[in-house]
Design brief:
This protein is an alpha+beta fold. It has five helices and seven strands. Strands 1, 2, 3, 4, 5, 6 and 7 form a seven-stranded mixed β-sheet that branches. A hairpin with a 5-residue loop joins strand 1 and strand 2 (48-53). The longest helix is centred in the middle third of the chain and has 13 residues, at 75-87.
């Protein structure tokens, strides 16, 4: 369950997709913990959709879909927006379910100095897509070069073989979501 608390005088405002100049964003990553929402897209038979990332962190590895929360968003709002941006999936908000929240310290980041890394409070959600949705999912932005469906067996085999395509965190979040 997600409990959203909002004071009566909170003002919702429009926030641009990125919102900060790159050097301002780098300074923010040096001093603040970022809030992210990532979504594990899966089918009823347990297949998981993973994207091959083009950017840091996780460049050239499989990961799920998501990103930074914007001011004024709920966790569900953020997940729905990320799925639309990265997969052109118009997700049903009622099918986004909370999995777990992690305090993650990444070793790299997408802005200089890349090796400085950053910290995020990462909320993982799951989304069980319909067969129709599953058939038409493809990358819709530059976050992932390509996407692929994986069975639990394939994922376990990749992990067992020490594949560099799987970040060590991926089996953990998939296992916690009951999808590994």
């Amino acid at each position: 369950m997600i409990q959203e608390l909002v004071e009566d005088d909170f003002t919702t405002r429009e926030v641009p997709e990125f919102g900060l100049a790159e050097d301002d964003y780098a300074r923010a990553l040096d001093h603040l913990v970022q809030a992210n929402v990532d979504v594990i897209v899966h089918t009823g038979d347990g297949r998981v959709l993973l994207g091959h990332r083009e950017d840091l962190p996780l460049r050239n590895m499989f990961w799920v879909f998501g990103g930074r929360m914007k001011v004024g968003e709920t966790l569900v709002d953020s997940g729905v927006r990320a799925l639309r941006r990265e997969l052109d999936l118009h997700a049903d908000p009622d099918r986004l379910l909370l999995s777990r929240t992690y305090n993650v310290r990444w070793g790299t980041r997408s802005v200089a100095p890349e090796e400085r890394g950053f910290q995020t409070l990462l909320t993982l959600m799951t989304y069980r897509c319909t067969d129709e949705e599953a058939r038409r999912l493809a990358p819709a932005d530059r976050t992932h070069g390509w996407v692929r469906w994986h069975s639990r067996q394939e994922l376990r085999e990749l992990a067992r073989n020490g594949s560099r395509l799987l970040h060590p965190f991926l089996p953990i979040v998939l296992r916690d979501a009951g999808l590994f």
